[in-house]
Amino acid sequence: MLYDRIGVGYAHGRRTDPRWLAPIVAALGDARTVLDVGAGTGSYEPRDRTVFAVEPSAEMVRQRPPGAAPVVRAVAEALPVRSDAVDAVLALLTVHHWPDWRRGLAELRRVAPLRVVLAYDTRLHADFWLVREYVPEIARLELARPSAEQIAEELRADEVVPLPVPWDFADGVFPAHWRRPRAYLDERVRRSCSALAQAPSAAVERGMARLRADLKSGRWEREHAELLTLPEWDAGFRLLVSHS
User: Fold this and answer.
1) Helices marked H in 41-136 — which ranges?
2) Of 21, 25, 47, 239, which one's alpha carbon is 20 to 30 angstroms from that of 160?
3) What is the mean pLDDT of the chain?
């Protein structure tokens, strides 16, 4: 499993941010039973209803905190759950990792009448300054993944809700540090971003050396001065809500 390899230390950087938790919980409406698919460490699992989790990676299961929802190891493409077993299903920043993402989405439709999926616009990620200027090799990886628009169409989404990234976002998703570039110099931060963890190590090291130099010289601040005035930024994250 991919995250058995790149997920070590994942919980260090990936923490729940209430500014994303609120719209995710709101999208679940009055659903009382929820299946979290590709659950990882369970960052956005609601605490006010019954949650079951599915996660293929033993490393990610190991990092789930005490009191987290019960979890079984399985893949999205073959959920060990009967049809219409739960009120709602969550799939948060996971679809782009599924080998057969269309089959996985069909499974989401099978097991629940309400589907809440967090995806992102891969074109915006590929054009993120860290990719464009420092590790361009990531662009090929991002553009090969299913984008939010494709997932919304396949999922037959009724709602598409943009989730901007606040400048002080607590959850270390790949573009989380868009206004805090020094964070990317921390190896622990990079390990919790799958795009950086999957990129060629030599390319990442070269890019970080260039970023370190640009921060020291002040070039990064000069080139990206407009970002330093923004309270939040649209990195392309989209909450997709699909009802039967």
Assistant:
1) 58-62, 101-111, 122-126, 129-133
2) 47
3) 93
